[in-house]
Amino acid sequence: MKIVVLVKQVPDSGEERSLRSDDFTVDRDAATKRMNELDEHAIEAALQLVEEHGGEVTVLTMAPADALESTVRKALQMGPDRAVHIVDEAIHGSCAVTSSAVLAAALRTLEWDLVLCGAESTDGRVQAMPHMLSERLDVAAVTGARKITVSGGEITVERQVDDGYELVQAALPAIVSVWDTINTPRYPSFKLIMAAKKKPVTTLSLADLGISPDQVGLSASTSQVLHAAPRPPREAGVKVIDDGSGGVALVDFLAAEKFV
Amino acid sequence: MMAERTGPLQLLDLDSLLSEDERAVRDLVRRIADDTIRPYVADWFAGGDPPVRELARQLGTAGLLGMRLSGYGCAGASAVAYGLTCMELEAADSGVRSLASVQGSLAMYAIWRYGSEEQKQEWLPRMAAGEVIGCFGLTEPDHGSDPGSMTTRARRDGADWVLTGDKMWITNAPVADVAVIWARTDQGIRGFLVPLPTPGVTVSRISDKLSLRASATGEIVLDDVRLPQEALLPGAEGLKAALSCLNEARYGIVWGALGAARDCLETTIEYAVTREQFGRPIAGFQLTQAKLADMTVELDKGFLLALHLGRLADTGRLRPEMVSVGKLNNVREALAIARECRAILGANGISGAYPVMRHAVNLESVLTYEGTSEIHTLVIGQRLTGLSAFT
Questions:
Q1: Which letter does DSSP use for residue A73 in this model?
Q2: B50 & B70 share domain
């Protein structure tokens, strides 16, 4: 089977992250860039499916040119066969909806039975990409998988929900997003690192995909950040001296905050 | 107001001297160490019984065992990539780096360089994968710096060899599946491959040690151990064969020691900027800053030396006395850094909650194993004067 894994370059969530002061987009220059953590689980899921059923794995990303080393090569070092990297200055500031148009156009140029991605990215955390691509490509989207099995042109997914899981089936081709409960991503190895250098990476521009620059970017986005300000410093808490009424004060507080 | 801080190895932008591949290997080993070694190594050290088999499989899967060797399932990495691997492993713990050094540079290298085709096929792929663990028996209780005086003997008995003797301070021995044993024969010193267990071989763990406790160390006693002719390493004739293996391992130590020093220094800088005495961070005192600056200068110089040796090795120009310069300097300076860092941390410096004391006591072993500082000094002296001060 042919699998495409969507990966995203994000600012390292372990570090201080900030927004640019001019257009309030993510300040990529200030950040250490890396592959979105959940995407590693999507790649691992793809590799396991291909190990079981045969086939090939393509990594697809839409990111600035510097994602080649920070994200594309790191993804290939886990074992996928090739990568497609969409690079275009005009994409800067695109919202999820416009991004999905670009990714859908790229997916139309590729052969695939299954598209996998992380359930969310650590920067935007929108969680909507599978649904948007599903609408654009007219295939099923199953989100939040903790287990995927493929049999006879059909996919069965254990979809993780708060109080357990749902069993969802869909015909292939389909789009599935995964949580980190699905697997433990493998480490690269020395051999895979060396092999990753020789794996083909196709670079596509918007023109290659037949998309005009005015259809994407900040100006075409369906949502924009108009203003951002740092969180105000935390205020000192309320101290209640328990003179016998502490329990009542606590319940009043919890009720006022709608915790009970 | 605190300005931006730079890590001790970032000060000179030394990363820019590495290729993208070299950085990728370094990042991989650092990640493995961060995920699977660092969180547990203090406990392994305290318990003195590290999970060597598990570690070996992990390192083998990543292609890090015998990584400089080519063929037989080995990765064929450059000397610099191997050096960076040693550095990242030793930044976690010298004992874990010792496991990889002994497996790859001593046991596997001996088989790869001096073994028969059958021996290579039998042992190397499984050793590269970390499924089989090797050790290297050269040192004896009474013969350390002077291995040429070894008393372990191998005598002919019909078509067989019979080995008798005692090998001491053997890294990996308690868990090893195969030992490279060096013994005196009528034709001089020869190397033998001894599968473990073999009748007549007794391996005991050395538990009473205050250094390298996250490494398995043992004694191997050989009591009339009968081996077939096929156990002989056909290419290894004379002490120089054994010493050539040590040269490989010493090269890794040149890099490894820097890892331990870096970890001490990074820990100490972090500590010094947050630890307040007299109402200010101790890093703000000039005495502390002078120590931090001096240590960083030595660390960065050591890195440049290691990288120089690595580039020489990758172009086939590395000579043993050059490795002696590297080992002498880098281990000596790493130990000085670890001791200084220990002092800056005050009482916390002796706590197992920080890695500094562990690195410091580990480096005490690294200073004397694989050639003591004195021996490396004499190797350099001999090269400079043409006169041997050994005998």
A1: I
A2: yes
Q: Decide if A187 and B21 are in contact by the 8 Å CB cutoff.
A: no
Domain spans in chain A, listed from the N-terminal domain onward: 2-220
Are both B213 and B244 inside the same structural domain?
no
Which residue type sits at B243? L
Sign of torsion over alpha carbons B48, B53, B59, B63: positive
Q: Based on the domain organization, do B258 and B293 belong to the same domain?
A: yes
Residues B252 and B363 in one domain: yes
Q: Is the pTM of this model over 0.90?
A: no
Q: Residue B231 and residue B83: Cα distance in Å, rounded?
A: 31
Q: Nearest-CA neighbor of B63 among A250, A164, A190? A: A190
Phi, psi of A200 (to 5 degrees): -70, 135
Cα–Cα distances in Å, from B250 out to A176, B38, B98, B104?
A: 50, 24, 11, 12
Query: What is the separation of C-alpha A85 from the centre of its chain, rounded to a whole number of angstroms?
Result: 15
Residues of A with CB below 8 A from B24's CB?
73, 77, 188, 193
- Same-domain check for residues B108 and B170: no
Domain that holds residue B247: 240-385
Pairing of strands B232-237, A114-118: unpaired
Q: Which helix (H) or strand (E) holds A250?
A: helix A246-256
Is 80 exceeded by the pLDDT of residue B15? Answer: yes
Helices marked H in chain B: 20-32, 38-47, 52-61, 79-92, 94-100, 109-114, 117-128, 239-274, 286-314, 320-344, 356-368, 373-385
Closest residue in chain B to residue A195, using alpha carbons only: B21
Mean pLDDT of B219-243: 97
Residue B3 is assigned to a structural domain of this protein: no
Interface with chain B: mutation pick from A193, A197, A198, A199, highest number of B CBs within 10 Å: A193
> Which of these three, B210, B238, B266, is where a domain ends?
B238
Contacts B75 to A, Cβ<8 Å = 190-191, 194
Res A20: pLDDT: 87
Q: Does B118 touch chain A (CB under 8 A)?
A: no
Q: Which residue from B24, B31, B67 is facing A187, i.e. has the nearest CB?
A: B31
CATH number at residue B328: 1.20.140.10
What would the mean pLDDT of A116-127 be, rounded to a whole number?
91
Query: Which residues of chain B have a CB within 8 Å of the CB of A189?
Result: 28, 61-63
Tracing tokens 């790649």 back to the chain, one arrives at: A43
- The rounded distance, in Å, linking the Cα atoms of B72 and B122 is 9
Dihedral, B98, B104, B110, B113 alpha carbons, nearest 10: -150
Instruction: Enumerate the residues of chain B whose CB falls inside 8 A of the CB of residue A190.
Output: 25, 28, 62-64, 67, 75, 77, 81
Residue at a domain's end among B92, B113, B128: B128
- Shortest alpha-carbon distance between residue B22 and chain A (Å): 10
Whether A30 contacts A100, CB under 8 Å: no
pLDDT grade for B167, boundaries at 50, 70 and 90: very high
On whether residue B2 sits in a domain, the answer given is: no
Residues B109 and B153 in one domain: no
Q: Cα-flanking dihedrals φ and ψ of residue A146, to 5°?
A: -115, -10
Q: Find the CB nearest A190 among B20, B31, B63.
A: B63
Q: Considering the domain boundaries, does residue B253 fall inside one?
A: yes
CATH class of A2-220: alpha beta
Do residue B61 and residue A187 have CB atoms under 8 angstroms apart? Answer: yes
- ipTM surpasses cut 0.90: no
Confidence of residue A228 (pLDDT cuts 50, 70, 90): confident
Tokens of residue A91, six digits: 């994409």
Residue B358 lies in a domain: yes
